[in-house]
Amino acid sequence: MPTEDNIKIPGAPSIEQPAVEEPTASREPLPPKPDQQGPEAVSPTGSPTGAPANSRAQSGQYLTTAQGLRLGDTDHSLKAGPRGPILLQDHHLREKITHFDHERIPERVVHARGAGAHGTFRSYGTASKITKAGFLAPDVETPVFVRFSTVLGSRGSADTVRDTRGFSTKFYTDEGTYDLVGNNIPVFFIQDGIKFPDLIHAGKPHPDREIPQAQSAHDTFWDFVSLHTEAQAHTMWNMSDRGIPRSYRTMEGFGVHTFRLVDAAGKTTLVKFHWKPKLGVHSLVWEEAQIINGMDPDFHRRDLADAIESGAYPEWELGIQTFPDTEDQMFEGIDLLDPTKFVPEELAPVQPIGLMTLNANPTNYFAETEQVAFHPGHLVPGIDVTNDPLLQVRLFSYLDTQISRLGGPNFAQIPINRPHAPVNDMLRDGMHQTAVHGGVAPYHPNSLDGGCPFMAGQDVGAFVDVPEEIAAGIKERRNPASFDDHFSQARLFFRSLTSVEQDHVIQAYTFELGKCYEAVIRERQLMALANIDAGLCAAVAKGLGMPAPTATVDTQDVEPSPAVSQIGGKWPVAGRVVGIIADTESDLSLVAAAREAVDAAGMVPLIIAPTGGVIEPEHGAAVTVQRSYLTARSIEFDAIIAAGGGIPAADAVPGRDAKAGEPGATLDPRVVLMVSEAFRHGKAIGAWGPGAAVLDAAGVPQDAPGIISGEGPDTVIPVVRELLSAHRAWERFPAAGSAS
């Protein structure tokens, strides 16, 4: 009989088991696994060459350039001193980034799956004291286009995967286009952009099987982040509820990097940008996200489009944290040029500077959402960059990748990308050139075109790079010592969460690492968690059935930042979706009144009934149905009201719907499932009349937090609205015990 030890379990990512320690002894590349075979080695015209099938694979023990030049370092860009700007002469960086930028066509390499919307930005004028940017002057309104996205998945993946989200805004200012290209997490995985290809290669599906899609729960991702410990801070944010937002409308945005604002006198201020959603920052719970990925993989893009269509326009305040532009560019011991660090809001409050409202959906997804091209180097006078080594590489990479993705250098002429300011750039020809240029002298200086175009002075809005003294240093590939702390900010974030949120982090790490085939990768990541928080490490280790290692780094204690927690506030409920279960046994006058009350509160009421169409009463008006028991699922609703007894529908048979259970049930099992799921996920649940029987059948205690029983909508709807302002009935999640 086969034993557990000799049973071959599929899924190993490599032909041999890796070591816990990073391999350092040089060796030839590993051969393919036994189940793998490459195409026959034939010539371009189909003639056999007789070469082995793997002769076209990578060869040699050492990392090289594409030209075969051996390399001694691929982790650090060539800089003018450890804190200086990156040098254009870095041939390895340029080759590596350029090749990476052109790896996918025509889909984006990252952020392929996205949703977009048009809107306006109205400046409060509060930033005008520290920047001359015209769109930030008092009461200036600027058109914007925003694209939200996931990072890892393809265009055909799902919305509610656990992933970082992109949050990019194109401001069509009268001084030129300004792009604020950010994420929903304020820190990033890496400190130097030269590592970005490595990060994405590790996070993308395994190249042999192209699975798993849009997930980080696999060996290559955790192999990379456990070896590259500067990624631990971002990973911690991603394992929190921030990795599965409720909607784009309830998602925070961050510029990630530190930027410079410049006033009219040339004085500079360092800033970090924040987008604060008016609806608050809210997330899904893990089971809810998993169900959504199967039931409605378009959940986030549908929510955004539906909210705009219904008039519940999403809004965000743009805010800034400000810091003195000192020579060391440090603040309270935090290196402002390190993109893996954030500054707690308790140390530097976020000051609101304007309001963005998204009020129009795209007319054509491809023409707008797919073809929009962002670039952090699209700047306007009054906003400049810093020497953040990740930002420096992005300034090259974004422009380069658009050329490949959009078919040439004229992508700015695509309608969604066209500036709302006059363009006279002397750039000519190229693929997809749609302008018809006049004149004969596209060069400067010239006399044949009357000298036009002319250089602009600062008095007419010229962009002037901030003059910055570059400290003398050795040309080398290394980071400053202030970049060396990889664990304290991960600890700060984790210990700033409530116990409920900490439980979700523990669950996420346990799930993700539990999906890794190699035990040594799980062991190595546990070693990193031990350096962050012993309680967290022990809880995850227990879930994995592994011993908890002890810390190997003396990580400093930190003051918690309550601002990173999503629990505890009260927020508007505009656009929240309330499902109302009704049937022929319901008092339809109360159902109609409930629908009206929900709508009057700015929420969206959806009637759920045994079938589609209408519910016909014996007397009075019929009620239109939006969802049937077959098409509805709890994940679509922020709250559920049982105004009916859940009488079985005609299709409540397993042959038509596996969720329907066996025939003959008193209540339709799909209604019971809907309510029980909503209860598990901490959602508000109301009931009156025959609806009380549904709660009982679902095992929902009527005295549990977030459960409202009453005589009708007058008593139930106001309480539901109040509960939704806190997003969930968090008291329903007894904490398993604080990990820290």
From TrEMBL:
Any Gene Ontology biological process: response to oxidative stress
Catalytic reaction(s) noted: 2 H2O2 = O2 + 2 H2O
3'-histidyl-3-tyrosine (His-Tyr) crosslink residues: H375-Y398
List of residues binding heme: R108, R147, F196, R394, Y398, R405
Pfam family, one: Catalase
EC number: 1.11.1.6
Keywords: Heme, Hydrogen peroxide, Iron, Metal-binding, Oxidoreductase, Peroxidase
Keyword presence, Metal-binding: yes
GO MF term set: catalase activity; heme binding; metal ion binding
Active site per UniProt: H111, N183
Chain segments carrying region Disordered: 1-58
UniProt similarity note: Belongs to the catalase family. HPII subfamily.
Function description: Decomposes hydrogen peroxide into water and oxygen; serves to protect cells from the toxic effects of hydrogen peroxide.
PANTHER family named in the record: CATALASE (PTHR42821), CATALASE-B (PTHR42821:SF1)
Protein name: Catalase
Organism: Paenarthrobacter aurescens (strain TC1)
